[in-house]
Amino acid sequence: MIRRLVPILLALLGLGAGLGAGLALKPDAEEMAAAEVCAPVEHAEAAHPEEKPEAVHDYVKMNNQFVVPVVEGGRVSALVILSISLEVQLATGDQVYQREPKLRDGFLQVLFDHANAGGFRGAFTQANNMTLLRHALLEVAQKVLGPVVSDVLIVEIVRQDT
Predict the structure, then answer these.
(1) Rounded distance, CA 112 to CA 106, Å?
(2) 145, 103 in Cβ contact below 8 A?
(3) Which of 88, 92, 101 is nearest to 152 (CA)?
(4) How far apart are the C-alpha atoms of 80 and 128, rounded to whole Å?
(5) pLDDT digits (tens, 9 = 90+) for 111-159
(6) Residue 84 · residue 153 · CB < 8 Å
(7) pTM score, two decimals?
(8) Which of 160, 141, 156 is nearest to 86 (CA)?
(9) H-run or E-run covering 4
(10) What does 83-109 look like in DSSP terms, one character per residue?
């Protein structure tokens, strides 16, 4: 009988403690009024939806991931897998997909060069290391597509050691 009563008593004790803490920590009327004074910022944005800037860019995700081997001592020591998206002008996504084989070829060459230069060893996700890689990928993208591309986004990156 006591075994059944202990969990019920503990639940009631916890419920009472939670209720008591809620009442004790309840904000005063002055604090509630102060919070309402700050709230109109959200309402002001909702009241003028026509003032929001229109999107001038579109994002195009490359269809497949990129798999890059990291070679050390004549053997593959790791694989780096990346997902890449491109920031392009609106309504130019079809151009990207039409030129995707050429883009993939150029991107793979940049990624292989980066791997051979040691770019995927150690702390390969350091900001300056990733900036160099993005810049090199952007150069290739702009060579293939022209000024349609404004940025290259590395959406996912993972290194799997063998």
Answers:
(1) 10
(2) yes
(3) 88
(4) 18
(5) 999 999 999 998 899 999 999 999 999 999 999 999 999 999 999 999 9
(6) yes
(7) 0.65
(8) 141
(9) helix 2-24
(10) EEEEEEETT-HHHHHHTHHHHHHHHHH
